[in-house]
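Hi Q.,

Before the meeting this afternoon, I wanted you to have the zinc ion prediction in hand. No need to reply - just skim if you have a minute. The sequence and ligand are here:
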Amino acid sequence: MEDELPQGIGGGGRLPMAARVLLDGAVADLEFDYSIPPALDGVGPGARVSVMLRNRRMTGTVLVVYPAAEAEVPRLKPLLGLLSERVIIPPALMAFGKWVAEYYCAPMESVMRALLPEAVREEKHGEKRQRFVRLVKTVSDDELAALRKKAPAQAGIVDRLTLLGKEPVPATAFSPAALKSLAAKEWIEITEETVERDPDGGESFLASRPLTLNEAQQRALNAVLEAVAHPKEAKPMLLFGVTGSGKTEVYLQAAQRVLDGGKSVLVLVPEISLTPQTVERFKSRFAEMQDQVAVLHSHLSQGERFDEWHRIQRGRARIVIGARSAIFAPLEELGLIIVDEEHEGSYKQEQPPRYQARDAAVVRASLEGCAILLGSATPALESWHNALRGKYTLLRLPERADDARLPLVRVIDMKLEKNKAGKGSPAILSERLRIAIDQRLARGEQSILFLNRRGYSSSVVCQACGNVVQCPHCTVSMTVHREAGRLVCHVCGFQKLAPRKCPACNDPAILLSGYGTERVEEVLRKVFPTAKTARVDADAMARRHTLRDTLHAFKTGKLDLLIGTQMIAKGLHFPNVTLVGILNADLALHIPDFRAGERTFSLLTQVAGRAGRGELLGEVIVQSFTPHHPAIQHARQHDYEGFSEQEMEFRRHGGYPPIAHAVLVTVRGERENLAEFTLKTLHAQLLKTLPPDILMGEPAPSPLVKSHDQYRFQILLRARHTSQITQPLMAVINAMKMPPDIITTVDVDPVNLG
Ligand code: ADP
Ligand code: ZN
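Predicted structure with the ligand bound:
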């Protein structure tokens, strides 16, 4: 594929151009300038090229193209060749990539990898070529009869092709030997064509019709369309609507209008596999233009990814739905970006480039000059803050669209239940919840139970010596997975056989403490022996289609009870579910993180939103050991605004986001002392150089001190604007000589505090 060119070829009549190239695979960004030989005329940003660097052949990506006369070095070496003909990153997207690198302190190389996914860079996946056959001879009955006796396989092919008329048929349907004989006789013609892989596996959708919007929806849609028409004057929009208020319908109709106007639409969802119904609703609404819809999910093969990228880049796919990395999709002529469930933590990428896709989407929209719509029932406080101070336009959908009422939420104090359960066995089902499930079973209605912890028990504790079995690589207790008969570390995945005796003192009195979804399933089967129960979590859903099949069985009433983790918290809509049980509302509260309350509130609201989405009134039972916590009480009242007001007070008081921006610096390494010492040295340097209006915390061990055999220490910095921190911080880090086995990471606007 590579075009070799002789070195030092002269320029033609046009202005000689030069390209700045970012080399692949270097640890730090390495950029060099090369002249563009006439044969490579038209090379643009994003082009994959080969170049010489000190007599070594390297590959890289063009960042910018400029007149060679402006080069700092007088005699540039030429680009050697192009690795791919068509890869070009649109200019607005390139500018966006540069913003991501700068704002998030990420190497441009890592941003390039996001802009050009592996499958596109590597090029080896290429296009899929497929052979087609077509009948070119008019075969008489006699000829066919003779052939049937001599070579029935060939006659069979002729029959099929006759039936299908002039349409070419994929050659894979037939025996290669028979095809060869027919082609030799010139009865058929075999052609090879480029085909696109079909990630849907030929699945087809029935087009859904737009619903008549209610007043609030219509107002929201009008505002969105106004912004689409005049994006330059419009602010980003935040669509705040309770679960079931019809936000998705607003997205669908807005998208439709943008497409009708000839522009394209980018839709971000938290995670494709967790929001199957949202994706399906887009697919079915746009079923008539299915070839223009691209869904980017993590299950795509490299070949499929290659096809999708090119389909988008050539403007053939005009509506793209994907998780956070889709923010880098090479769409042009963008009319609207939609970020669904904008509060979701999964919009944050935890590897370089550590971007927050929702915030980045706002910047991309401004660079593209298009409208942007964020939507949620429980907006992130960052977005809410922006709406309150007029940076974003707030659009509200205060009521449920389908006339269903918000579910009744009861909070059960598990401290009282604990005593009833008796010593040793955890209180899993309160009496109230057990009775409520029984009632649903009797009425033929469905229930969902939610617990955000998989496995059987959360830890193994020795009753004799108190030892808790810990992961040898991380500072967390190992979780029992009974089905697999193993202990599993949920941080690094390390597994070992479940012990029969205490590994420390050999006493057989080991106790499984706490509980996960596996144990709940066991309890449910015991307590409700006739109920049809299924479990949805990462262990049970390891295979590709299990989740889809289980949800389908639930939807069609083949199951009564579903127990699951966050996999069932989002975007699912089952009209016959009238009960949702939240088994342990406290799990997310006890994480040492200033967002713990916000996360708990939004999780409870999302999960509760699964109840009563049909004509039947829903009931939610929340089990908690801290029933009076504001996050739980406000969720009980469906009171987002009350919660956010109180939470904002706490953030203001502590100087936390969204009042300030935070940057988390983590130093990690296998040697604990060295990691700690390095961070302290960095801290001392920062004390000397940082301006006083930056709040800097003390260097401290990360909440999870050891993870994957690495010890981690961190400092949290806060200031009004990110660049106040990142500019001096990066200067100090770059000037410091770091020990070779120490890794320093800078996380801007962190979501996970370690
Ligand atoms: P959200 O995205 O806010 O959770 P959905 O768009 O899923 O809400 O809407 C919830 C339910 O209400 C869905 O069943 C949807 O079909 C229905 N719905 C939405 N808008 C309307 C409308 N204007 N008229 C009737 N039903 C509607
Ligand atoms: Zn581990």
